[in-house]
Amino acid sequence: MFVTLLMSMNFATSSFNISVNKLVSDTALQHLASIYERNDESNVQVESTDGHLLSDEQRTELLQLSVPIVVPDFVPEGFRLTHASGEIVEYLNGDEYPIYRIRHESNNGECFTLYTPDNFPSGTVLENTQTEFGLIPVYMYEDGESYGLLSLVEIEMGADVMLSSSNWERAYVSQENSEMLRCKALDPEVFIQVLESLTLLQ
Q: What is the pTM for the complete model shown?
């Protein structure tokens, strides 16, 4: 109920942002580009590999979690799958929840991750993107030295997933064992292409 209430508040706020997106997007995109300090050689190409890059073993492991698993059907050219895992974690109240994380990286150091969220996105709404899961806001955030893009995909209680691309990404070995990796965030246009392609793993 708490998650549902917070999500209702978030998306009520995002409905207001739809009306001002045209004003916000151009300025926000320019700001994001200035933060990244990208040049033409570092931009990700938009050619893609169709379908997810999971092995049969990784696919089987994720599907055993018995919750809907979201994967990208668009993987930008030059990206490789560097991590895919799932597990059941037990919280202090004794409840058990499935979590998973799927990360892709490029040779240029860009990365994006799909993961079971433990928080909610915030920042400036760049765009509201139509997906097979409905209309999803794309948030740009900047917090000190941390910046990036976030979108929360609502599916069902316990199965929501966050798409993230930032200059710091958490690399999980397990829920108790993780480290932060230095990355480059995707260009917003490519992030949106990945978001639009998200689908359920079959």
A: 0.73
